[in-house]
Specification:
The complex is a heterotrimer of chains A (about 220), B (about 280) and C (about 650).
Chain A (H helix, E strand, L loop, with lengths): L1 H27 L8 E2 L1 E8 L2 E13 L22 E3 L3 E4 L4 E8 L21 E3 L2 E3 L7 E7 L11 E6 L12 E8 L4 E6 L22 E6 L1
Parallel strand pairs in A: 1-5, 3-6, 5-13
Antiparallel strand pairs in A: 2-3, 3-4, 6-11, 7-8, 7-11, 9-10, 9-12, 12-13
Chain B lengths: L3 H13 L12 H27 L6 H34 L1 E3 L17 H28 L8 E8 L2 E6 L4 E3 L2 E4 L4 E7 L4 E5 L6 E3 L5 E5 L5 E7 L11 E7 L1 H10 L4 H8 L4
Parallel strand pairs in B: 2-6, 5-11
Antiparallel strand pairs in B: 2-3, 3-4, 6-9, 7-8, 7-10, 10-11
Helix pairs in contact in B: 2-3, 3-4, 5-6
Chain C lengths: L25 H23 L5 H21 L3 H7 L6 H7 L16 H29 L10 H24 L1 H11 L7 H19 L17 H4 L3 H29 L12 H32 L13 H35 L6 H15 L17 H10 L1 H15 L4 E2 L2 H24 L1 H7 L3 H31 L5 H28 L13 H31 L67
The chains are: A mainly beta (about 220), B alpha+beta (about 280), C mainly alpha (about 650).
Amino acid sequence: MKRTVSTVLFVLLGAVVIAAIGVGFWSQAYRAPAGTQVAKSLGTAVVNGKTVPHVELDFSTYPDASGTMIGGQPIHPGGNPSWPAYAPTNKFQVPAGALVTVKWNQYDSGGALNNNYFAWPHGIYGPLVVNGKVTDHIDLSNVGHTFTVRGEPGVDSGFFVSVASPANGDSPTDTSKPQTVEFSFIAGAKGTYAWNCEFPCGLSIGGFGAVMSSYGYMSGYLYAV
Amino acid sequence: MPSDHDHKREEIAEEVAPLFEGGPIWRRPAAKIFVIWAIMTAIGVVIGVMLPVHIFPKMVSPQGKDALDTVVFFTVLAAPVAAFVYAIGLYSLLAWRKMSGKSDTPPPDGPPHRGSGLAEALWVGASVVLVIVLLIWGMGFLASETAPQNNVVQVNVTGQQWFWTYSYPGTGVTSNKLVLPVNREIQFNITSMDVTHGFWPVELGDQIDANPGFITHITVEPNQLGNFDVRCSQLCGLYHAYMYSHGQVVTSSQFATWLQDQGASVSSVTSYALGKN
Amino acid sequence: MTIAAPRLEDTKLGPKAGGLYRHQSFFVALPFGIFTAFIGWLVSHALLQNSNWGSDMVVTVTFVSWVIGFNAGIGTFNAPFRWLRGKDQTHDDHLYAAGVGQGWKRYWKYCTDHKVVGTQYLVLVMTLFFVGGTLAMMIRTQLITPHSQFLSPQTYNAIVTVHGMVMIIATIIMVSGPFANFILPIMLGAKDMAFPRLNAMSLWVVVSAVPPILSTFVLGGTDSGWTTYAPLSVQSPPAQDAFSITIITFVVSVTVAGINTIVTTFTMRTKGMSMSRLPIFVWGSIVAAAVGLYAMPAFLMAHSALITDRVVGTSFYAPAQGGAGWLYENVFWIMGHPEVYVILLPAVGAILEVASTFSRKPLFGYKVMIGGIIGVGVLSIMVWAHHMFTTGWAPSLADPFMLTTELISIPTGIIFLCIIGTIWRGSIWTKLPMYFLYLFLWNFIIGGVTGIYLSDVPADQYFHGNMFVTAHFHYTLLGGAMIGATGAVCYWFPKMTGRMLNERVGKWAFWFIAIGIQITYYGQFWEGFEGMPRRVANYAPLFETANQVSTTGAYILMTGWLILLYNIIHSWHKGEIASANPWHAKSLEWHTLTPVPLENFLVDPVVTSDPYGYGEPGSVPGAPAPEPAVVGASSNQGGSH
């Protein structure tokens, strides 16, 4: 009996230690920015004959994550302050099936894409408006970042959104002169959608090392709830 | 001095005879081992025939079907072999267990048999036969994956972190969805822009790595209409898990329509569909 | 028996015996290693701060400094430096280095006594399995739901990588570390291994290899799996350099240990111990060591080239400059395939000893088994490209590699022949080690058969990179080799610790482990059939049920291992005191005292037969047969008819 009790206690102790290590890994999460941006409501809209919520997401891309451009806290507390980053956070929440309007201020410099596919917008509803003008696609050799939201693995709903933004070549640090990109898309069904930037602004092989391979700077999630 | 021949006969007699002794047929050790073996083989065969077919995705090409058939065949072939080992293992616990673990004294020693040339030869011989059968099976299927013939439809596949794009040369179409015409030989030309990815159109039953700096090729002929998934099968970094795209096998006219919807001109679609690119 | 002569281990040594060793231990080496690493970090940081490769060079220099510093601190370089100065160690120094007069403290020091090294390895292996197992639980917990956000993809990939590598390190040393060190020399009738100082070195070098790989979690995490394929690993965060340093350091240790095992077996056997009287465990260990000597340098080369690609910009693997990922893949798998037999063969050797002892029968087909073990070793170096069937590297080589891979099933199958031949009509004694023999039999068949599926190229075109592969190698490595190692622990525990492992608690552990393995890895075969790729943090919804089954099994398995860990710790501390030969076995290690004297035997043994004389006339329980044993059922058995 005593042996049984001490065995069970030891197993529980082991489980607690393992669980504590699990909590450690969960909280580390490679220091992604905290918080999820809940899209703000703009009322409703009629899309393909149905009435759906209309919401808005606002984000910016900065040449570095130090936060000096926005005069505030670093975008990535504890992360690498010299890497470009999406701000204020890399996680977005929208109602499922809603019409989502995105307003994107792009401050960072850029260059040529490695795959011209991304210069054109995909999966958007309505026009792509860049710096106030309706545009067909971004100049292939002068792209800043892309916002590419992929469908859930294995779910063939056809949901896929990808939009590129121009590089802010002359004034990447001037807070008054971002490149502005505005577009809308229809959010997918309830789920978790991973997004990332497909412009290789990192180091090493293919330009996808360093910042591009570190979760939270150029990658994140879109939650449709 | 007994000759080697008598040696062997005595050896076999000593080893094998006791199995067939001991009362009515169903009580003899050989019979019991046989029954256990037969039951386990039957279970293995039933599992092999019924289970993979239900769990595998629905294949849309002969190569996919080959993979599934191989799994079924190998399982059915392995069942009697595994059952033989398991049956002896189980029987040993039922009949030859002379002392439980609770005792600190060992049971008396067993018979001092150090080997049997016959058993060893039979075993190795049977293994060789099995390997030959497996090889013929495998090489047969591999040989059927021949080089492409005429009128092959070319599709260029580009993998990058973490995305697949498919282009249909000559039509100017680049897409993130892989649409293919049924009953045509498709040659995929695959490369990567950064690291090694694994191009795996699952229900087409074939896959190959996308290597940066090289172009690799596989040829598939889908023979069923339907949907399929393309997954990345080689760990490629942060978003490897999300590197999925969708595929569809459609009729030739649907294929031509789709290409035109993506922006291809009618003339380029016609020459492309004839395999002239 | 009573001995009037004083024991060697009771020798009183002078106050200066041991020299520098007196002041060295793990507790000195650890801070010294950290200090040296810090100096390395400062120097490289100062020199290379502005370089593009700054981080990689800094991490590399820091960890190389750590390895050198730790090993200097523990005493690895003492003897060579002494010798370089034209001096040598005195007899008292040798005795001090062997642990005389230090009591329990010698387990924390550089101790040349192979029994101490074996025990240190046992504790190291259990620690590594705890670390690797915890990481496995992280992985399985993440995979409970398809879109789990428990771990970010970066954390997940880092955990998958470290889990794999820690487990590979642990499984390579799990039998060769504790048992080829502690037991093998005694089995040969030797006083120690051929190179006692190198023996201690191999242990402490592995210990120094562990912190770099654990630090990868705070250096950005390696995202390329334990196989660290280039060019992805060229792109990885600085953690990859720490990982490569671990590999290079580990290879040094394994090479040294392998040479030691082989030389010991060839030169240190006692009188009468001919090669054909060697226990099968020794054969398994030396063939594995030989295969390791062939394979491990390839691992070192693959990673050295990776470090230079990352740190100084060579282009072995960088396609843009003419390199190729295929180069890495080939060199890696030239190591990677033989390596699994380095893992397997010692465990098979150990479990065959268990089979013989607990069936009270000679090992069936001893000579054919040796042929099988050597056959596996030789063939293992010719099959590596079956890991590369779908890389597109050399399509015309698919058939030849399919041939060699399927051929290897023939010598592997001989293992089953020998096990079932041994238990056939034996007198089975179901003690705890025997339980693990049966589990090994069950698991290894499944692992081996599923390997055949993968060797078939058309099937591999579906299964490559898919969870089926993961399930296959876990069945062979965990279900086969590790269960064999667990059987070895249960078998040799009384000799190594002087106490008996508790049978009742052990059986509980056994059943949780046995059932846990089946559920966990059947779940993963199911995932593989459905088409789930490997190394994915999130997956398609259709795989959810299979994953939940596998995770349930993993929790059951974890419970089993924890129960076994408790049993080992508790029995080591408070178990029933063991006699010298509790299993009444015949090999030489059971014919010396427990605890084993410093030079293993009080009187040099003379061997007259192999250790498998069960049932032979004149065979007294618990002693080698007095006359040479006769093969087969001849009517002329010895001279007693």
